[in-house]
Specification:
3 domains, Alpha-Beta Plaits, five-stranded antiparallel sheet, Uridine Diphospho-n-acetylenolpyruvylglucosamine Reductase, domain 3, alpha+beta, four-stranded antiparallel sheet, 15 helices
């Protein structure tokens, strides 16, 4: 069993990494462990658990700036922001239920390290677009600070983007500074029932192209809709296409009426308000409508929105395949039986033709160890990845091989 190392602060973290560099000891870097099952299996003697670094270090509501230690739970971050009616606009998900990692709440550092964004990404951008600054300890045991604590400060911003989404393979995050935004006063969701995936994509495209500023656009096939805790969704007994509007109360009411008129040709309509709308988007954000167990695999496919249904038809294996469409159809969560390689060859062959990329989000360790979990890189990009790894973690002590074999 791997030894658990739990530093108390940034200085502790640097000491652990200095020891690991000197002794050539590799470390599996984790926060609360909510996304530990994503990526290639990491085999190390030691686990570096960052939840000992927790707490808010700076919060200036008037400046829309928030800093916290990397191990701070997202629940605690959101509670602090709620007091000032603010939020993380990129709507970070909690994927622990469907990943089977014990319903663990994600940490701020883990969310940024994985660049995790929810349904509002189509309107607000990805997690990396909201990161203003980072503190981290590299695989050289060097403590670095990049970015700043105000929105106009872009010093080192590219390094922020590099570390966001690097899955702990280049440096261990110790503090994260993010831009926060006011929480919308109200929200409403217009749902269209009974559509096929192709019809849903057309409806979502029309809504996104309209003047109503949609902040969420998803299609839930009937088999997934039946699992919802929202009665209006389960009672529809059919597929549900959901379009969300947020903002000031009067604006939401006016835009909802406009959207209802725009979507009338697409099928039967219904409106969800307030808490009901929020509950549905929580299910979509956390992909809790997907089956939480079984021998299937789950892929996260990113493609051109109009191509989403075609991609699913061309790569689905058997009649038990299920798909949830988010981001207007551009993000597809695909669940299907595992035929050895998890369908990797077929999926990537189709996406090579249509455009896009695929990440294997859930699969047995044997499958994750045998196939490329993250999208394979063309050689020029793979060479750059190897050089970056050598620059920031020359002895490969941080999450070795988690993203790509040998890196």
């Amino acid at each position: 069993m791997a030894t658990m190392l739990k530093p108390r602060d940034e200085a502790d973290t640097a000491r652990v990494l200095s020891w690991a560099v000197a002794e050539r000891k590799s470390l599996e870097v984790v926060g609360a462990g909510s996304k530990r099952a994503v990526g290639r299996p990491v085999q190390t003697e030691h686990v570096l658990n960052m939840t000992g670094l927790a707490g808010v270090s700076l919060y200036e509501p008037g400046e829309l700036v928030f800093s916290a230690a990397a191990g701070t739970l997202l629940n605690d971050v959101e509670a602090a922001l709620e007091e000032h009616a603010q939020q993380l606009a990129f709507e970070p998900p909690n994927l622990s239920r469907f990943l089977g990692t014990g319903h663990k709440p994600p940490t701020l550092g883990g969310t940024v390290a994985a660049n995790m964004s929810g349904p509002r990404r189509i309107a607000a951008g990805a997690a990396r677009d909201h990161v203003l600054g980072l503190r981290a300890v590299t695989g050289r045991a060097e403590t670095v600070r990049v970015g700043g604590r105000v929105m106009k400060n872009v010093t080192g911003y590219d390094l922020c983007k590099l570390l966001t989404g690097s899955w702990g393979t280049l440096a261990v995050l110790t503090e994260v500074t993010v831009k926060v935004l006011p929480r919308p006063e109200a929200e409403a969701t217009v749902i269209v029932t009974g559509q096929s995936a192709d019809e849903a994509v057309r409806a979502m495209s029309a809504a996104l192209a309209s003047s109503v500023s949609v902040s969420g656009a998803a299609h839930i096939p009937a088999v997934l809709a039946a699992r919802s805790a929202v009665s209006a969704v389960t009672m529809a007994a059919s597929s549900v296409t959901a379009l969300r509007i947020e903002g000031f109360r009067a604006s939401v009411r006016a835009r909802r009426e406009t959207l209802l008129a725009e979507l009338k040709p697409f099928g039967p309509l219904e409106t969800l308000d307030g808490r009901t709308s929020a509950r549905l988007w929580g299910e979509i954000r956390d992909v809790s409508l997907l089956p939480a167990d079984g021998d299937n695999v789950v892929w996260r496919l990113s493609t051109i929105a109009s191509k989403g249904p075609d991609v699913v038809r061309n790569v689905s294996i058997g009649e038990d395949a299920e798909a949830l469409y988010d981001w207007g159809g551009g993000l597809v969560w695909l669940v299907q039986p595992s035929p050895g390689d998890g369908g990797a060859e077929a999926i990537r062959s189709v996406l090579e033709r249509t455009g896009g990329h695929a990440t294997l989000m859930r699969a047995p360790p044997s499958t994750r160890g045998a196939v490329s979990v993250f999208e394979p890189q063309p050689e020029p990009l793979a060479s750059l990845t190897r050089r970056l790894k050598a620059a920031y973690d020359p002895h490969a002590i941080l999450n070795p091989g988690r993203m790509y074999a040998g890196v």
